[in-house]
Structure prediction request, 270 residues.
Amino acid sequence: MSGRFEGKQVIIIGASGGLGGAFARAFAKEGAALILAARSPSSLTALAQEIGGKLAPADLTDSRSLEMLHQQAGRVDVVVNATGFSPRKSLAAHTDEEISRTLHTNLMGAILITRTFAPSMAQSGGGVIVHLGGYADGRLALPFFSVDAASRAGIMTFSEAINREYRGTGVRVLYFSPSPAETETERPYHPVWRKLGQPVVSAEKVATALLDSVSHKRQIHIMGGALPRVFSRLNAIFPRLAEMVMINRYKRILESYFGDGAVDTVGDKG
Prediction:
């Protein structure tokens, strides 16, 4: 029996990360033809030997690099942006380099990827571009995630705007917010998530949810159960109530891990 993505060409940008690798394996099982992209493609050799697929260099902050990836791929049905950079500390503790890298990797990267692939997708009848978001809908502004939250909220609103701009063309941008996952880079933060009441799930479970979201033509998918979805809506309508119900408690927990004097923590998504 053929898979859901049989005959589809899928690019995974950031396939060297824990989530990116899980996404690649899941698409391969569903019959997709894969292009595995990373800044250092040699890091993907073992994955390509395991599941098949072509290797390609890609720097998502460099439009020329993305255009070369686009030219190499030709027609593309799905692009998954599985990259991310997430400092978790007070704003005062952020360096200029961390602020710049967060905004360029997360927000600028999403914009450049979309600008590169959306026009040709529209010309060929459609396609899906997936960007990974932060906790909840990206606009639930958690303390000690300030710069990361700014970039994720930007991705969320950018995705909304692009979906309106490309309505009727078959092009869709999916804002996908994964649950905290069992990956090497996220593992140091598992105690924090559990303290916040958020389950840590396998990378394979995240991949299953992502493929389902692509198949079901969603524009937004938030993992983590009802809690992040409910509080995202509450925060959007009644932010002061959200603070009373949840955010103030979250702040105390996050401050104990990421506040000034706590361990300096910076994490790449994946």
